[in-house]
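Posting this for the archive.
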Amino acid sequence: MFFESYFGKIVYTFLISMIPVVELRGAVPFAYSSGVNIFAAVLVSIIGNLIPVPFIIIFIRKIFAFLRRKIPKLDGFITALENRAEKKSEAVKRYTFWGLFILVAIPLPGTGAWTGALVAAMLDMRLKRAFPAIFLGVVVAGIIVAFTTYGVGALIS
């Protein structure tokens, strides 16, 4: 079967890293448990985790407005997402680049590329300003999760 092959495991790692909440923080441990090399796991997870970011920053407000108009029952859910982003935005408002970087880089629940992109969109940050901070945050989070999952010795061997 495809997902049992090494390439399939890499594709699955890539897809997992694109899922909100799970993101890279779930993809790297999956890759580890599947026997994927640490460097491949981190690289593929970073790329997959970053793919949704520009779309979220550019389109999420329009998507939210569309969903509110077409499916009014989703208003409470959308408002909850916006409120969550607003709560996370204080450090970003204060420190801009570094605040967004830290929000994404610390691999805790409620942080990550999706949350960082949502916060950037809610703060009307331009993509060219927000993406570098999110990119660096994802890289740092990837390194932290990889060290935690694979162990520091994985780099030496």
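Residues 2-156 form one domain. The chain has one domain: 2-156.
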